[in-house]
Structure formats: C-alpha cells, structure tokens
Amino acid sequence: MSASRQALARAAGLCCVVLIGAWLGLLVVGNVRTPVGPMDTTMTLRPSLTGGTKINVSPLGALELRSHLAPLRLDVDVDRLDPDRAQALVSHPERISGLQQEIARDVGHGTRDVALRSCVAVVSGATALGLAVYRRPRRALAAGGLSLALLAACGLSAYATWNPESVMEPKYSGLLTSAPQVVGNARSIVTEFGVYQQELAKLVTNVTKLYDAASTLPAYQPDPATLRVLHVSDIHLNPAAWHIIGSLVTQYRIDVIIDSGDTMDHGSTAENRFLDAIPDLGAPYVWVRGNHDSAETQRYVAGLKNAHVLDDGQSVTIAGVRIAGMGDPEFTPDRSTADTDPDGAERTAGGRLAAALRAQARAGTPADIAVTHEPAAARETDGTVPLVLAGHLHRRETEVMKLGTRLKVEGSTGGGGLRALQNKDPEQVRASVLYLDSNTHHLQAWDEVTLGGLGLTTAEVSRHLPTPR
Fold first, then answer.
1. Average pLDDT over the chain, rounded to whole?
2. Torsion of CA 100, 102, 103, 108, to 10 degrees
3. Among 145, 140, 119, which Cα is nearest to 25's?
4. What is the C-alpha to C-alpha distance for residues 235 and 242, in angstroms, rounded to an integer?
5. Is the Cβ–Cβ distance between 262 and 234 less than 8 Å?
C-alpha cells in the first residue's frame, strides 16, 4: 500500500474513532437536568442529519421545531410538572406575567450548561476511545482535539442557521395534536398573549388531572377575524373519513369544508348513500367532481342539505369567502379509457375556469379560492385567483406559481380508500386547515393534519406560514 493510501486510511480510522467516541460520550454523560418554569426537564444534544429541537412531553407526545440546521439536535425531555412550583403559580396568578421571561432565562441557562457538558463529554469520549484503540497518548489527544473542533463547527453552523421564527411553525405529534387549540391563530398569539396566560393558569390549577386535560386543552381565544377552511380530498368511500372530518370541524371551529373530489370510487348509484353523512358534518360543504365521481354522484350531492356543488366556473359565497370551481372533465374510475393526451382535457377545463374567474373579477365579484380536482387544471388559473385547491395525487404539494397564485394539493383524506388495501403499506390520512383573514381573505397560515393509515394510530399536526415573495 502506498504512503498516501496509508495516510488516508489512518485519517479515516481517526475520524471513525472521533465520531464513535463523541457519540458515546454524549450518550453517557451529555445531558443536563434543569428546571424550566414549573417543569423539570432533561436537555441533551444528539447527532442528527436535520438538526432542530425536539421537546418530548411523555406520554402526551412531542413538539418539533426547525430551530437550526446542524448535525446536532437539541432534545428536551419534560420529566414532570413540579406540583410545588405549579401551585405557586396558581396561588399567585400575578407571577404568570413573568413566566415567559423566567422560562427564557431557564432555557438559556440550560442550553449553556448542556453545551459545556457536551464539550466535556465529546472530548472525553473521543480521547478515551482513542487511547483504547491506539494506546498512544498523542493519538488520543489528537482525537480529542479533532472532536472539539467538530463540535465547534457544529455550534457555529447552528448559530449561523438559527431560526427564531421556528416557534411559529411547530410540528405536533401524539396527544399534543390538540395544541393548535391552545395556539389559535399563529399571528394573534403575540398580540393576545394575556388571554393565553389566563388559559395557562387554568391548565395548571389541578395537576392531578393533567392527563385528562391533555385531550381537551383549554381553547386559546383566536383572532375573531380569522376564517377557517378545511380542505379534504380523495375520500374514496372510506367511512372513517366522515368521523375525522366531523372531529376537525368541531376542534378547529371550521367555517366551510372544501372537497376537491374523488369522494366515490366507481361513481355508481349504489354508492350514493355513502354521501348522506355530509349534512351532519357541522359546516357548509363545497364539492367539485373528481374523475371517480359520476354525473349521478354530482346530482346526488347537489340535492343534499348544506352541500354546494361547483362546476363550469360557478361560485358560491360562504362566511364571506367566494369560492369558484370546476368538476373533472373525465370520468375514469378504473382508468380503462385510453387517452394520448391525458392532461389535455384537464388543461382545457382549467382554461374555462380561468375565463370564468376573469369574468367574475371584471363584474366586481372576484373569487378568493378556486377548486379543481386535478392539478393540471388548477395550474391554468395562475394569476386569476390568490389560492387554488386540488387533489388527485394522494400526496401534498404546495407552490406559488409564476403569476402569484398559490397552488395547494391535498393528500387523500380517506387514506386511499379500500383500494389502499392493495398496497404494501397503509396510506396516510391527510387534511389541511387553512386560516384566512376575514377582510382580505388571504391565506395567513395552514395546519397539515396527518393520521396513520389503516391499522395505525399515529397523528401529527404541522403548522406552516406563507413565505413572503
């Protein structure tokens, strides 16, 4: 073996020793127990490909923040709610006003402590493993020095990519999916923090009922100017979808439900009774036809109480929001129809919808939201409406198109329906809650709700804010 290859092999071996030793050091002694407000927590730095911060509230779930990009993640485990400190807040409500500053100080102290302890853990672990492998103090010290340099580089990367706005876009899992009720409108929580403080005081009044309270967290009073739209799609005859939609309507106090099609599977008359749940969902139901929905399906939905069918660019105004839609031009429940240009009909239908939107704008009644089933049709509306919704793909996509229209494609709220049983893995159940300003009707934020598919009981809610152009 040449000298250069030997040197490269030694360097690679040293890197492996450094990484393994640093990881073992963090694993063994790289955590700090520290109080944060009324809670006792354990803070730990962990190797990670994506970075960020994860707050574990066992057994209620977790909260993930995209706080930084670095190969290190900060884990904060909430061990317990201290009854004495919690009771002190209840007995002296005036202390709530300083709780935010107290928590910020506690987190700052804890982060510094865990950073210092992690430095010691990383250097000690790499040095000890280096000594065990090489049995030479100089090589062991080199391993320790290299581990310290790597940790410093990770720290600089985290500092350079620090995102203080990450708290505005949290991702919840487990029972903490009820957290949006506490957070309310993403933009009003800062201006109405006093209401949140009062609700927090109520939450800690009886710590013995913490687990019961977790599923019915006190509702933060949202901005009264916020309109809430539930976007669902591709239910495909899954009866469980109606229970999920009804629960979301109640939990988020939805003003209108928008279904972007494929509610059925074959569009047959026998399937129509499946639609009888729509009038009892608790909110107006706006529907467009998908390629699995027949003309008979459309007529049946139109005859249901509280349902609004949109086609050929027709529009309806609900809760002040004007919604226009176009049904899918094709009926292909089994995809047996051959078509040399499958998107041609969709683009034509999208063009007709765009023409109707322009006509409505000229008449002084511009639409706020457009709805189609296939994204190919939705793309034709770019520049004619602020927001267009679609489905069909059974996966989520969102983008701002060239002329400024935001396209949001929803996944399958029915988890792909019964056809998903043919797949190796269950398809996830997806829906989104859109928060609109009541004056401009522009999108302020949206929550993506994702549930495990058939046989799974996972749940998470991820909040997103529009990126300014």
1. 79
2. 120
3. 119
4. 9
5. yes
Tell which residue, 27, 18, 279, 238, has the closest CA to residue 149: 18
Residue-by-residue DSSP string for 38-104: TEEEEEEEEE-SS--EEEEETTTEEEEE----SSEEEEEEEEEE-HHHHHHHHH-GGGGGGHHHHHH
Residue 327 parent element (H or E): none
Which of 24, 9, 10 shows the shortest CA–CA distance to 123?
A: 24
Residue ranges for the chain with pLDDT beneath 70: 1-3, 58-61, 81, 83, 85-101, 103-104, 165-169, 174-222, 224, 334-342, 418-425, 453-459, 468-469
Order of strands across the sheet with 387-390?
315-318, 321-325, 369-371, 387-390, 406-409, 397-400
Q: Output the pLDDT for position 214.
A: 33
- Extract the tokens encoding 223: 């901005």
| β-pair partners for 80 | 40
Strand partners, 64: 54, 171
Q: Which amino acid is at 354?
A: A
Q: What confidence score (pLDDT) does residue 217 get?
A: 31
Q: Answer yes or no: are the C-beta atoms of 388 and 405 closer than 8 Å.
A: yes
